[in-house]
Each structure stands twice: as C-alpha cells, then as structure tokens.
Design goal:
single chain; alpha/beta; globular
C-alpha cells in the first residue's frame, strides 16, 4: 500500500501497537471554545474529528470514541464516526481523566488481553498516526504509560498511551477530587518521548481549544515547499506520486513542478564546459 511505503522510514506498525486500542477523546464541554464541539470544527474541508479518525484507523487496532453524552444520529452521520464503539463518561465533570478511566474500564472489560489504550484529544487537527506508533514502540514492561514532550518542555498527557496498570492511581486521584492530568502523570511511571530526539514536528501537537487559535488557522495560507532530489533512477518520481496521493487524500491542495536536469550537459554543453 502506498501509505505504508510512504512512511517506511519510520518504525513500522508492528506487534507492539497491536496489543492496544485507541480512543478519540471528545467528552469535554468546550468551554474555552464557546461550548462548541471541537471535533466538529472544520479545517480544509474536513472536521477535526474526521481528520484524526482517518489517522487512527490506519493503525489497524480497535477504535473507541469517548463522549460525555451520546451523539445524535445526525451528528454521527455528519462526522462519520457512527461505526466507532462509543464509550460514555461514567465520571462526570472530571475532565479528560474521567473519560480515560471510563474507557480503560469499559475496553478492558470487553477485551482483557489489551495492555491499554492510546488516547488523543479531538482538538489536535494535525495529529499523525506516527505519534502513536512511536509511543507504542517505546513502551517497556513496568511502564504505566508513555507520552510526548515537545521542544518547549510541555508534556502532552492527552496524546499518550496508558496501560491498565495505571487504573488504580487514576481512581485514587478521582476519589481525592484531583482531576489534573499533570498531577496524575507525576504519580505514574510514565516514559517520556521527546519530539526533538524522535524528529517529530511540534506543529503536530498544535492544540486548537480557543476561538483565537481556531481563527489563526486561517492565517496558515503560506504554501509549504518540498524538494525531492536524487540521482537518476532512484525513485524520485515514485516518491513524488506517493506524496501527491497522500497529501490529496488529507485534503491538501498540491502542485508539482518537475525539473529534469539529467540531460543538462547535452542540452547546454557550453554552460557545462564553463562550469
């Protein structure tokens, strides 16, 4: 498949991640976004939820949708998440931790062979599946979870793996009324992966949870320029075609300027001689 080949330079989707499930967290009230459902916000013709769902489905593991309340049929039809297994928050007003605990309990009850779940918040529209693959590969026996740290030193507990061993500590925090994810992670044996060391762009972690941040997305109009270069017959055209297919599938407008300089000496012998 072109997509698997396209990312073959990264750790493959192997046995590590097959022991997990994944969850899209959309149970928040969206108070900072004016009580809008952030999974329904649109970027380049696609909702945030749909963009993240496309990435998660490529992992080939069970997918779950964490919700504060059941979506209506019309909403399911609109964001195309109806086929995902919904898990309603059993602990209300507890922030992301309530959804994480509810999902771990429900999913592990359904399949006790799961080691845990990968969670990603619905307000990360630039999420890529590689972010989950790298965490799964880094997980070691004895860890309660794995999460990312970006170059600015920020930890990202809602783009992280949590093993079933984390449940007792989570429940203890909830019983104390301690809902802060930072406090939870400080009590868990969390492995930290740095985006800088893993060569992961920090822009993939851009969190859109305020109106001004959403409006700023419209300012991201400067086109990205990618150059593909190499010797003759090394696969430049094949790579370019795969990139065009992948980017187009993600809703990105793509233009290609192909320059072939292989015959430059024959076409401009006088310039070659001068050079």
């Amino acid at each position: 498949m072109p997509d698997r080949w396209l990312f073959s330079w990264q750790p493959g989707i192997g046995d590590e991640i097959m022991k997990w499930g994944c969850v899209l967290l959309k149970g928040g009230r969206g108070s900072r976004m004016g009580y809008r459902d952030k999974s329904e916000l649109i970027w380049r013709g696609q909702t945030f939820g749909f963009r993240i769902r496309q990435e998660l489905e490529q992992l080939g593991i069970p997918c779950f949708l964490s919700e504060a309340e059941k979506s209506s049929p019309s909403e399911d039809a609109g964001n195309k998440m109806a086929l995902w297994s919904p898990v309603l928050d059993q602990i209300q007003q507890a922030g992301p931790m309530g959804g994480i605990v509810s999902c771990l309990k429900a999913c592990l009850l359904k399949d006790s062979s799961m080691e845990g779940l990968f969670f990603v918040s619905c307000d990360l529209p630039f999420f890529r599946k590689e972010m989950a693959v790298r965490l799964a590969a880094a997980f070691k026996e004895g860890d309660d979870g794995v999460m990312w740290r970006t170059r600015d030193g920020r930890l990202h507990p809602v783009c992280a793996f949590y093993a079933k061993s984390a449940l007792p500590v989570m429940e203890s925090c909830l019983n104390e009324g301690e809902f802060r994810m930072r406090t939870l992670c400080s009590r868990l044996r969390m492995r930290i992966l740095d985006t800088e060391k893993e060569h992961i762009p920090d822009t993939w972690f851009m969190n859109i949870n305020r109106p001004e941040a959403y409006e700023a997305l419209e300012d991201r109009k400067r086109p990205a320029v990618l150059a593909v270069s190499g010797s003759k017959n090394t696969g430049k055209t094949t790579l370019t075609e795969a990139l065009v297919r992948e980017l187009s599938k993600r809703g990105v407008k793509v233009a290609v300027i192909k320059h072939d300089g292989h015959d430059l000496p024959r076409m401009f012998p006088e310039r070659t001689a001068i050079a």
